Amino acid sequence: MISAILYREGSRLTGFRATGHSGYAEAGSDIVCAAVSVLGCTCVNSLESLCGIAVLLNGNEDGLLDFDLPPLDQEGDKKAQLLMGALQQGLKDVQDSYPEYLKLSMKERRK
User: Fold this and answer.
1) Beta bridge mates, 67
2) Domain count, the chain
3) Domain of 91?
4) What is the 8-class DSSP label of residue 96?
5) Mean pLDDT of 58-86
6) pLDDT higher than threshold 60 for residue 110
7) What pLDDT does 28 receive?
8) Where are the alpha helices (DSSP H) in the chain?
9) How many angstroms separate the CA atoms of 89 and 12, rounded?
10) Structure letter (DSSP) for residue 71
């Protein structure tokens, strides 16, 4: 099962961590792992290429994607929240379709 955590400070989404493998299918054919990977990587890449926000990437290896948003001004945070909200919605949609393969949770920001 994939464990996905969205970190927040109040109502602001501030980071993301996904670990594990879904076990839905063999590597290379696993649509749940692919969906979570694409959502997370697209969020990171969009934050950087579209918004100019360099995320604090803590890990990006087999079975792990972990990043935090840096401190942002109001305009940057507004853009980041839109993309983080899209990540949250996409993950929720995957979890709703494949609840036995993805567990999504929300946690207050790690210190």
Assistant:
1) 16, 57
2) 1
3) 2-108
4) H
5) 91
6) no
7) 86
8) 31-49, 74-97
9) 14
10) P
Q: What 3-state DSSP class applies to 43? A: helix
Whole-number CA gyration radius for the chain: 14
- Active site members: 21, 33
Average pLDDT on 65-93 reads 97
Residue type, 110: R
Q: Position of tokens 């969020």?
A: 43
- The region, left, alpha or beta by phi > 0 then psi within -120 to 50, assigned to residue 55 is beta
The answer to whether 1 and 22 are in contact (CB under 8 A) is: yes
CATH code, 97 = 3.30.70.1490
Query: What single DSSP character describes residue 31?
Result: H
The two three-digit tokens of residue 34, written as one number: 């692919």
Asked whether 109 and 13 are in contact (CB, 8 A), the reply is: no
Q: What mean pLDDT is reported for the chain?
A: 94
